[in-house]
Design brief:
With 417 residues, the chain is of the alpha/beta class. It has helices at 14-25, 51-54, 66-71, 132-143, 155-166, 187-199, 247-251, 295-309, 373-385, 391-396, 401-411, and strands spanning 6-10, 31-36, 74-78, 82-86, 91-94, 99-101, 104-107, 111-113, 126-127, 147-151, 170-174, 203-205, 210-216, 219-225, 230-232, 235-238, 242-244, 260-261, 273-275, 280-283, 289-290, 321-326, 329-335, 342-348, 353-360, 363-370. The chain contains 11 helices and 26 strands. A hairpin with a 4-residue loop joins strand 24 (342-348) and strand 25 (353-360). The chain is globular and about 60 Å long. Bound molecules: flavin-adenine dinucleotide. Flavin-adenine dinucleotide (FAD) is lined by residues 10-16, 35-38, 45-46, 48-49, 81-82, 108-110, 129-130, 156, 245, 248, 277-278, 293-296, 298, 322-324.
């Protein structure tokens, strides 16, 4: 690909920041502009559901100070949305009526909270959690809260539940599925976290839907389930997932399907537009198309697109990894767990130190680790080394990561280079 002379990045989040920084670090001399709908400089979202809720005050977890952008001649426009992408004119129109032209546009628009459209969703005391402003509002509400109901036992909901229990707030978690984090972790890991949260004093109600959030004078009072149960609440957090921000792409007639569709170079159906991070749907192993919501995915895809725009593009193939802190427990995941058909546990869940090795068609696909950072880091190396590590190799090496690595290298000498 010929290097563009100007790049406009839509979205001032984790991916947008990284794309701009990597372009400059790689020697890009043209104009670089970041357009962000939020008024804040790019910040990290992970602390918003973790350390950021633990105390009464928490500074916005900004990733880089404004000086970083000035020093690199990166133009940053904040508090202004891209409202239209005009492909013929190679430009983006903004909510302030500006037209920003660029040779190449990088869509890094992230994702939005999936709304739970049930009665009472707009009552005072009901929160979602994605932005620093939403985190500030939730933190303020938790200060005097006595009873929290979390709707959705995903990562964000469980992280907030863990903080709430630590703060002594009576906490109930409700989920439609049969186990927590069902789409993202193995049944063994769900069971471990079920036990962990229950022991911490949270009540977990599974296989139920929430029919309504009820209140008085506009303020939340309870949550009603399809079983008829009514759970008292003065704060409700809805954490039922996210949907990719694709409106700009859809309106511009780019291909969209659970995210902005890209090829292996993260190029959309228009050669002069890329998509990265939470908003992008890209080709992965097994002929699947996936969309990931993680810091690793956002930053690695940003680096990959910057390399492409600098004329050094490679098909995107980074090994995914992710973490979640729930109370004192750190879960780390490397590779893919969804789609796995066999799981083997190494270590002892009762001692809060173990890993679940997940296999698909007899090959290692992912590793989930609890308080075992060494397994996680070795797993990242292993899965980068080979995508075809047989189950026999893992079991034969008794889950010893060094032995597995030695075995892989002896089987696949080309991986050593
Ligand atoms: C509470 C929370 C906790 C998380 N914890 C973890 C964790 O522990 N580990 C982990 O790996 N990941 C975690 N994540 C996920 C991770 O933060 C995201 O995957 C990552 O931020 C994605 O980066 P992004 O740049 O694609 O999107 P974002 O960081 O969301 O940035 C997108 C930006 O684009 C802006 N935007 C959208 N549309 C427009 C437009 N039309 N014009 C201008 N701007 C626009 C948005 O306002 C937003 O600021 C967490 C997410 C949340 C919400």
């Amino acid at each position: 690909m010929r290097s563009p002379s100007s790049v406009l990045i839509v979205g001032a989040g984790q991916a947008g920041l990284q794309a701009a920084g990597s372009l400059r670090d790689g020697g890009f001399a043209g104009d670089v502009t970041i357009l962000g709908g939020e008024v804040h400089y790019p910040y990290q979202r992970p602390p918003l559901s973790k350390a950021g809720l633990q105390s009464d005050t928490f500074p916005a977890p900004t990733i880089r100070p404004s000086k970083y952008f000035n020093d690199r001649s990166i133009r940053v426009i904040l508090g202004e949305h891209a409202t239209r992408l005009d492909r013929a004119r190679h430009s983006v129109f903004t909510s302030n009526g500006r037209e920003l032209g660029a040779d190449h546009v990088v869509l890094a628009t992230g994702a939005s909270n999936r709304r739970l459209l049930i009665p009472g969703e707009r009552l005072r005391g009901v929160f979602y959690l994605r932005t620093v402003d939403e985190a500030d509002a939730l933190r303020a509400a938790l200060r005097d809260a006595e009873r929290l109901v979390v709707i959705g036992a995903g990562f964000i909901g469980l992280e907030v539940a863990a903080v709430a229990r630590k703060r002594g707030i009576a906490t109930t978690i409700v989920d439609i599925d049969q186990r927590p984090m069902s789409r993202a972790v193995s049944p063994q890991m769900s069971e471990y976290f079920m036990d962990l949260h229950t022991k911490a004093g949270a009540e977990i109600i599974l296989s139920r839907t929430v029919e309504a959030i009820e209140g008085h004078d506009g303020v939340v009072q309870s949550v009603r389930l399809n079983s008829g149960e009514q759970i008292r609440a003065d704060v409700v957090l809805i954490g039922v997932g996210a949907t990719p921000n694709v409106d700009l792409a859809t309106d511009a007639l780019l291909q969209v399907s659970n995210g902005i569709v890209t090829d292996e170079y993260l190029t959309t159906s228009d050669q002069s537009i890329s998509a990265i991070g939470d908003c992008a749907s890209f080709p992965a192993a097994h002929g699947e198309r996936i969309r990931l919501e993680s810091v690793q995915n956002a930053t690695d895809q940003a680096r990959a697109v910057a390399a492409k725009l600098l004329g050094r593009g490679q098909p995107y193939s980074a090994t995914p990894w992710f973490w979640s802190d729930q109370g004192e427990t750190k879960l780390q995941i490397v590779g893919r767990v969804s789609g796995c058909d066999e799981m083997l546990v190494s270590g002892d869940p009762n001692e809060h130190s173990f890993s679940v090795f997940c296999f698909r068609d007899g090959k290692l696909s992912g590793i989930e680790s609890i308080n075992r950072p060494a397994d996680h880091m070795a797993g990242r190396r292993l899965l980068k080394l080979s995508s075809a590590i047989p189950i026999e190799s893992v079991v034969g090496a008794k889950f010893d990561m060094k032995a597995i690595e030695a075995d892989v290298r002896s089987r696949e000498p080309e991986a050593v280079q």
